[in-house]
Amino acid sequence: MMYDLFVIGGGINGCGIARDAAGRGLKVFLAEQGDLASGTSSASTKLIHGGLRYLEHYEFRLVREALIEREVLLRAAPHIIWPLRFVLPHHKGLRPRPLIRLGLFLYDHLGGRKILPPTRSVDLRRDVTGEPLREEYLHGYEYSDCWVEDARLVVLSAMDARNKGAEIRTRTKCTSATRQAGHWNLTISGKDEVIEARVLINAAGPWVGNVLTNVVRQNESDKVRMVKGSHIVVDRLYAHDRCYIFQNADGRICFAIPYEQNFTLIGTTDEDHQGDPSNPQITETEIEYLLSATAEYFRRPVTRAQVRWTYSGIRPLYDDGASKAQEATRDYVLKLEGASGEAPMLSVFGGKITTFRRLSESVMDKIAPFFPKLGKSWTAQSALPGGDFPHDDVDRRIADLQRTYSFLKPQNVARIFRAYGTNAEKMFAGARFAKDMGQFFGPLSEREVTYLKTEEWVQEADDILWRRSKLGLHLTADEQAALRAYMKPGVKAKPAKRVKV
Question: How far is CA 481 from its chain centroid?
Fold first, then answer.
């Protein structure tokens, strides 16, 4: 079978491209060497945002595009994306207050904001957001952005691509790509199989250069600047639901964000990374940097003992020659190659999770000349799986679900709806009692595991614990061990300690 597109990479860009292309009538094959979102796309700061700091670098087009996308994506997936308010404390190291207010005015209006509330000034001496901060912070600003469950955004995009006819293969590595007369021959690992495709899309993220060098075997490849961003997750630092954006003395930005009910997420760093991008690790220097950065603002400094989890991701930026990692452009760069008559290849460099949908549309624009019957753009008005309900109807739908499935703890029903949206009904399907959900691993039921395996390409416990969810932060060691045993073929799982769910 001849495919129209062969996409290398199951991160947010690869899955977004596959979704858009399949919805326009193209035959798509996507190969991901690991699990979906197993690289950069599950290691972000989890924000759908315009990028306030990019205004300082005059990247107005990028900021405007990202600001517009916030509400497009909020409407498309209101179960995994929701509004957040960010507090920027002012201090003498920042620009003058009138200039910051002007920047926030632009931030409010560049993207045609309709849903999210506008910026407001905050008296930190009286407002609840001032309580965790040091006494010298008297004034600040509160503005809007959005939160996203990043790895779930990837999976939902892949599901939508599959629903529209795309072939999605995980744990499948493309090992070679050779041009033939008018098409590509692509070999994949694990199968004695050669895939033919008219166009090759290299959306391999941090491995984009590796694909060019070792799979396509180009003599000269565009340079990729790999920048590592690391985060720490600590015990919850404050009770309210707002986030903080802190500007550090070195010009870098640090966020403190309520996370998974009981924690606070702090990040990110920006460091150039060399070598293998497959398993980036936070360094002690980075941990100390994040602890020191927050200590400049919080009354009670965060200690090393409060760190419960860390993660790092590699941003595959286009090497634009910026002197500092934090100054390298976050905009995406698309490189289309192929002489007249040759099968084309398009490589994706950089990009933000916020703009993945627009990046996908730009890819379609680039390859449109090769597909005269390509359908029109469609994703701006289309919901992702489970997101087919009004963005402001989340609380009511959770309450309805809690009444229907009262045998589960309300917080567990809320977690399930936040993960699966209207698809939660497919998972529950006919359950009337807790026993109908099968074995439990803490709040995770056997029925949910089965759904994840059949619908969301899950094969291993970590796919669930750290990508489809962050239940790894909540399950006990015994519960995690029971889940791993359950998912290992041929090994009978020991029952997890049963708790009321």
Answer: 27
